[in-house]
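Section handout 9: paired folding examples.
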Amino acid sequence: MKEKVQGHVARLFGGGGLRARALRSSGFTVLGYGMSQVLRLASNLILTRILFPDAFGTMVLVSVLLMGLGMFSDLGVSTSIMQNKRGDDPEFLNTAWTIQVIRGFALWAATCVLTWPMATFYEVPQLIYLLPVAGLTLAIKGFLPTRVETANRHLLLGRITVIDMGTQFVGIVAAVVLAWATQSVWALVISGIISGLAELLLYHLYMPGEHNKFRWERSAANELVSFGKWIFLSTVAGFLVTQSDKIILGKFLSLSSLGVYNIGFFIASFPLLLGSMVTRRIMIPLYRERPPANSLENFKKFQKLRMLLSSGIFVLVFAFAFSGQALIQFLYDPRYSLAAGVVVLVACLQVPQVILLTYDQAALAAGDSKRFFVLAGCRAAFIILGLLIGVQAAGLSGALLGQGIATLAAYPVVVWLARRHGAWDPLHDLIFTFLGLVLGSLAIWLNAGAIIDMASLN
């Protein structure tokens, strides 16, 4: 019996077939992300005992600007390499790398220009000094080799996982040492630069393949820009979807309350971020090689995979929803106790996003970046509207509820996009909607006290 099980596992994960590569890539992604979150949590627990909540609130604002600039200028180079027929052509890859390098320096310059407006809007003078230094990480990332995207394209993620974990470990050690020495938010900024340099060095030394050179092939650049113009707009919308809560709440909450909120969000977002990473890394190659619209057999395979992914993420989501209060009390000191309600509510309100997680990659795999942008734009508009109405009506609780309703409002657009590529699975959506309503209602009822206490964050 034991030999049969071992043989079955070896057949599933061994060899160079699509299914084996997808399973291995999923395993590496889950392992890498799990280890990453363990390291982040350990770092977080140490740093929250060294630094005050204000430091984390300030760093949220720094991160929002850097992430915003990175996403607002994204030309979809990574996605283009993964889906383009020339994704293994050296001239195409070198042109893509040249674009990335130019973009990195442009982003750093933009960071310097935006320091004063950010510091003035949020009334945090320290941002004038923090942002130009933190922005150097954007220039460093521009030099990352395209060998990373090539490995993603072929679902060869083992070495990427190891390098990412090594990079994170270096950054965490640097953050803890600097926090102990400086007792300042500067520890988080400088450790980000150290981490970026370590990532660049490790990828250049240990990622197999040809080293990038500065090249500019006009036809490759035109392909990248043509595909990337819609990815650029989609990424702008994606930034607003994922960061609008921090942008808006940063104006309504104190730095201390924003830091506490971010701690709760960090804990609750683990399942969805893991699911997003797995689907992003494996679904585009799978959709590209086995489009569900091509045959019923392909659709059935995606249906099984979708059920499996959603089930796994649901288990994690509600593990955090039911245990959020106990987790915060066990892991953090009393200064962060109000984060418990954030964990519970954010976890429950992520259910609609989990249900819809595997659909939009079908459009990217087919090169349909225009319709992908339509979906991302609708999501962004609904979420910003939901946040603004919610925070004005009921503070932080209202803002989070508004986000959840906004995701539901975008459902018809998701269905429209998924049907265009033969990916929509109404049975899957119905099953997990029912489970989400039952389990979410129970989690909120059991943790009602923590959610009520959360309302005192201001």
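Moving on to protein 2 of 2.
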Amino acid sequence: MQWQVYLSGEIHTDWREQIIAGAKANNLDILFTSANTHHESSDAAGDVLGKPDDSFWRDHQSAKINSLRIRTLIQKCDIAVIRFGDKYKQWNAAFDAGQCAALGKPYITLHEPDIVHALKEVDGAAAGWAKSPEQVVEILKYTLK
């Protein structure tokens, strides 16, 4: 059985590629999905409807278009991995974790120990907290085999 794993959150490091490579190396039958990780095209997703003059409305419009993909992929996934990095605050990742919790979708958080306090509720609802992509791969390996 092929599992669908949704990869959410931080876009400035190669954590997604590390998890995908680890899954392939362990012959895990997983279809990985994600939000659009290309910053510029994500910000411009709503421009097809007309580019607003105000940046607030541009962000608002693009967020709605991006949500079509994100909500659909979260609803279809078997498990999600929610990555919180240290470069920027990932409010969207926290929102994705909330959607998973509301839908009863299991998720794993992935972040450094220094933000445990800030994420205590998000981690509290998670199936697990990993500190590295390798730990995520081990969890997936255990779950799927």
